[in-house]
C-alpha cells in the first residue's frame, strides 16, 4: 500500500514538474498567462517555469515578419488612377503589449492593414506619379521631351516618399507592441482603362519615331541615288570625251596616212577612191547616171561597161 501511494505521489510530482517547465526556443518569445490574463513575458531562449494547471504559455515569433497588403486603386496628385501593391516588414518587440492589444499575428496583420493602407493612400494622392516611379539617379532629357507640365512645388523623390510613409506608419505601431521596420511599394500600374490609352499612346509615339526613321532613310536613299546618277553621268561623259579623242586621233592618223599615200601617187589614190565610191554606189540592179564630165566616168570610159 505504501508503495502504491509513493508511486502516485511520484507520478503527481513528475506531472507537476513537467507542467511547470517550458522551453523558449531561439527565434521565439513568450508570455505567461494566468486564467487567460498575462502576468509576465519571456523574451530570451532557455528553460523557464510556471505554475502548473493555473498558468499557460503563449508563444510569438521573434523574427522579422512579412506584411503584404491587397492592391488598392488610388488617384495620384494629377488625378491618375493607378493600382498600388505594397509590402512591409515588422516584428514583435513587446509581447505583453502585443498580446493585450491584438492577441495574435492575424490580429496584428489586420491592424497593419488599416495603418499602412491609409498612410500609403495619403502619400499616393499627395504626390505625382512621375515622382513615385523615378529613382534618385534619373536625369531628364535635355530637350525636355519626357517632362510633363506639373506643379513644381512640393516635389519629392521616391525615396523621400517611402521614408515619409514609413515614419508616419511607424508612429502608430508601438501601442500594439510592434516595430515597423520597412515599407516598400512592390508594384505601381495604371488601371485597365488608363493602361489601354497608355499603350495606344506608346504605339503612336513608336510609329511616329518609325516614320521619322523611314523618312530619313528615304532621304538618304534619294541622296545616294542622286550621287549615283551624277557619278554615272560623269563616267559616261568622260568615256564619251575619251572616245571622241581616240576617234579624232584615229581620223587624224587615217587622214595623215591617206595624205601620205596621195602625195606618193595622186593618180592611183584618186583611182582607189573612185573604185570605193563605185563599190558603194553600184550593186545588184542599181543604176547610176553619170555626166561625161564626171571623174568616175573617166575611169569607166573605154571599159566594157561603156560599150553598147
Q: Ranges with pLDDT <50 over ≥5 residues? A: none
> What's the Cα radius of gyration?
55 Å
SSE pattern, N- to C-terminal: HEEEEEEEEHHHHEHHH
Shape: rod-shaped
Structural class: alpha+beta
CATH architecture of the domain at 65-137 and 153-190: 2-Layer Sandwich
Biggest sheet, in brief?
A: 4 strands, antiparallel
**How many beta-strand runs?**
9
CATH homology superfamily name of the domain at 65-137 and 153-190: Band 7 domain
Strand fraction band?
Answer: 15-25%
Mean of pLDDT = 79
List the total number of helices.
Answer: 8
Question: N- to C-terminal separation?
Answer: 185 Å
Q: Which percent bin holds the helix content?
A: 40-55%
CATH class of the domain at 65-137 and 153-190: Alpha Beta
The CATH topology of the domain at 65-137 and 153-190 comes to Tetrahydropterin Synthase, Chain A
What does this structure look like?
With 308 residues, this protein is α+β, with helices and mostly antiparallel strands. Among the domains are: 2-61, no CATH class; 65-137 and 153-190, Band 7 domain (Tetrahydropterin Synthase, Chain A), CATH 3.30.479; 278-308, no CATH class. The protein is 52% helix and 20% strand. It has 8 helices and 9 strands. Strands 6, 7, 8 and 9 form a 4-stranded antiparallel β-sheet that branches. The protein has a 3-stranded antiparallel β-sheet with strand order 3-2-5, with helices on one face. The protein is rod-shaped, with a radius of gyration of 55 Å.
